[in-house]
Structures are given as C-alpha cells and as structure tokens.
Amino acid sequence: MVLRDILIALRKINVNIFMKNYTSVLLIIFMMATSGLFAQIKFEKGYFITENGQKTDCFIKNEDWINTPSKFEYKLTQNGETQILRMPNLKTVVIENAFKFEKYTVPYDNSDRAVANLKFDRSPDYKDTTLMLNVLLEGKVNLYGYRDQDKRAYYYKKQDETLEPLVYNVYTNENRDILYNNRYQQQLLTEFPCTGITEKRVVRVDYKDGDLKSFFKDYSECKGGTVVEFSKPKKGALHLKAFAGAYSSKAVTDLGISAFFAKGVETGPSWSPTFGVELEYVLPFNKNKWAVFIAPNYSSHEGESEFLDLSVRRKYKVEYSAIQIPIGARHYMFINDMSKLFLSGAVVVDYLLNGEGSGNITIEEDLFKTAVGVSFGLGYSYDKYSIEARFIPSRDLLENSSLSTIDLQQFSLTIGYTIF
Predict the structure, then answer these.
(1) What is the CB-side half-sphere exposure of residue 131 using CA atoms within 13 A?
(2) Are 263 and 255 in contact (CB under 8 A)?
(3) Mind listing the pLDDT tens digit for each residue in 342-359?
(4) How far apart are CA 280 and CA 238, in angstroms?
(5) How far apart are CA 154 and CA 168, in angstroms?
(6) Separation of alpha carbons 71 and 80, rounded Å
(7) What is the Cα–Cα distance from 227 to 99, expressed in whole angstroms?
C-alpha cells in the first residue's frame, strides 16, 4: 500500500516544482559538476603498451568506469605530472586486479536503441569499428565487452583465432513490438559443446557481463583450463543510519478570500525536533560515489501569527505533524578514506499524523493532504558519524482544498550515526 502511494506521488511531480526553486537546483548541479575536486579516485600501479609494442610501467587513474573509456590519465610516478593516453596511440592498458583494455577492430552495431528509432531488420547492422574492449575473462576462450550508454556488445576469441561477436539485436515490427534477436545463445550452444552445457543452461544466459562470464568460466573449467579475471568483484553496500536534529520551518496560509479573512498569513519560523532512520544502498560502480536512500523521519510545524481583519486584530495558529519519507540519490565526494562530503536530492512524501488551523481561522484536519515535494541536502561524514543540512522548498499542505493553501517551507539540520 505504501509503495503504491509513493509511486502515485512520484507521478505527480512536475517541472513547476523545480522552476519555483531553480536557485537551489542550480546550486546542486554546480556542486556536482565540481565534485571531481574531492573524488576518491586514485592513480594505481599498471602499465600500457603502445601501437609499436613499447611497454611503459606507470600509475593509471582508475575511475571505475560504467561506459568503456576512450582515453586514460596516467603518471610516470605517483607525484608526477598527469598525462593523457588516447586510443589512437594505444594497444593495451592494464591495472592489476582492476581492469585490462585491449584495442581491436571489430564488427559493431551502432544502430539506435531508442524505442522510437528501432529498425525492422532482425540482423545487427555491423560495421568494422576500432574500439577499446574490456577484457572480462581470459581462459580457453577470452571474453571481451564494450559499453556505451545503454548499448552493450560482447565478443569472444578462441585460442589463436580472431574475435567474433556474440550476436544480439533489438528490433521492431509493423505493430511496433519490441523484439530481441538472441542469436548469441545459439552460438554458445554450438560453438562451445561440453558436458553440462545444455540448451536449458544456455537459455538462462542473458546478454550481460555476469551471465556471460559465468558461462565462459564453466566452459573453461569443463575443458580443464583456468581463467583469469581482471576486475575485482563489485558489490554494493547496505547501510542503516539513525539520525536526530531539528527542523526550522515557516508556513504561509492563503484562504483565497480577502474580504473578511486574512490572506498570506505567515506563521514561523519555528524550530521543532526531528528523528528517524535511513536505509542507504551504495551502488557498486564509479568507486562507490553514488547511493540511493530512503529516510523516514518525524516532521512537524507549530506556528502562531496575528493579522488585522477589518481593523480587528485576530490570532491564528497552525499545527502540523507527519512521517516524512524522502526517497532519493546521494553523491559522495571523498576527501580521504575516512571523511567525505556528500550531496543529496530526493522526492519527499508525507503521511499525515495531525493537521489543524485554529484561532480566528479554522481549518479542519480532513483538508490536510501534503503535496509531493523535493529536497536538497549537503553533508559531511567522518567514519560512522555524519551531519547534514537539508532544504525542502515550499509545498502545499492543503491539497484536499480547492480554495485555501498552506505553503510549508522547511530546513533541517541533523546528526547521524551509521549502525552498519
């Protein structure tokens, strides 16, 4: 039920939320764009071989790429000057236990994978292209991979033979159905016969790194060979954090009627306690710099105000409390192995606990329903301890009312402790 409500809430978000708070959005974008200044990306010991066969030992910047890189940064010594390696001059680039890239000219399908632009042809539109391929596995058969955005390509090479593509293609028909050419599965079945490699085994092999690596490991072991895997296994990390702090909030009530009642009555700013837990999953790529999280917490606002109504001074009070659930993403900027800065952005959904407007203006609880919002955060973490400031731009607390609005804006400061 909660998941369904969250999904419905996500669909309600529109560009207007971001346009109203463009300054905050631009600040977050700027800080993310400059986050490389704090990246936990190190120059690691490796080597490269140029086209003419010259081998150079050096230190190579390991960025734990998602997409296959076309250039590499390196230093001849750890404190040396950073230089650039570009594909035209390269043959091989290696960091032990991290990666190995080799350059080949191979058949590559460069057709558009966007659904609206899919071709009707079942066969890939291969053209000879020079690429840096990621050596995923070496054994009785070598496995190579290439990735560019949403496109992947895999190749294999038997000993003393040339590279061959594992054929895969996404295409469509006259009904605009999305269809898949899984010819690679037939290749695996016919090209690599061995005990245990059955049709049932092959049809479970998806066109992705993990499944293909597992298949070729099994094949090499079946043939009595060993395998060399260059990349270390990548695993995400799940963290649970408890946090507490305070919200500073203010609310502006607009009844939409100016004849007898106040318009634009502000209550606050006021401070109120907050506490909650956060479940974070650190994604297993790009040196663990990205994470997704959900952080349910207690949120409240209580504010009073006075206003003039036909020269009579009136009083007004807003009381609001909810379980607030931010769901978002976080980007870490490592200072060293123990400390890091981080930026976060989230969609915010509230589940009402209490809502009331009282005094000379009465707003019933059944009118309270909080609009979906967004939040932007900036924080610092040292070991298991963290501090974070989070800003939630104005959002309406009275979505059930067609006439009145209460726009609530919040700023929080919390201290957290990572339990695991």
Answers:
(1) 24
(2) yes
(3) 999 999 999 999 988 887
(4) 6
(5) 9
(6) 18
(7) 15
Question: What span, in angstroms and rounded, lies between the C-alpha atoms of 130 and 145?
Answer: 13
pLDDT greater than 80 at residue 240? yes
Q: Which long-range contacts (CB under 8 A, 24 or more apart) does 148-152 make?
A: 148/67, 148/68, 149/67, 150/113, 151/113, 152/207, 152/208
**Strand ranges inside 76-140, DSSP E:** 83-86, 90-95, 99-109, 126-137
Report the distance separating Cα 136 and Cα 229, nearest Å: 6
Looking at this protein, which amino acid is placed at residue 250? K
DSSP string, 319-359: EEEEEEEEEEEEEEEESSSSEEEEEEEEEEEEEEEEEEEEE
Report the alpha-carbon distance of residue 293 to residue 388 in Å, rounded. 14
CA–CA separation, 356 vs 376, rounded Å?
27
CA 120/CA 173 separation, integer angstroms: 6
Inter-CA distances, 407 with 246, 296, 329, 410, Å: 19, 21, 25, 10
Structure tokens at 302: 């209580």
Domains of the chain: 2-33+234-418 (2.40.160), 41-222 (no CATH)
d(CA 377, CA 388): 7
Q: In this predicted structure, what is the pLDDT of residue 335?
A: 87
Band (pLDDT 50/70/90 cuts) for residue 310 is: low
11 token code pair: 């669909």
Helices (H), 223-357: none
Do the beta carbons of residue 47 and residue 403 sit within 8 Å? no
User: What pLDDT is stored for residue 13 in this prediction?
Assistant: 41
Cα–Cα distance between 272 and 247 in angstroms, integer? 5
Q: CA-CA distance, 408 to 299, in Å (whole number)? A: 11
Q: Is 63 within 8 Å of 287 (Cβ atoms)?
A: yes
Count the Cβ atoms, other than its own, within 10 Å of residue 59.
21
Give the residue carrying structure tokens 């296959």.
Answer: 68
Count of residues in the chain: 420
Under DSSP, is residue 17 helix (H, G, I), strand (E, B) or coil?
helix
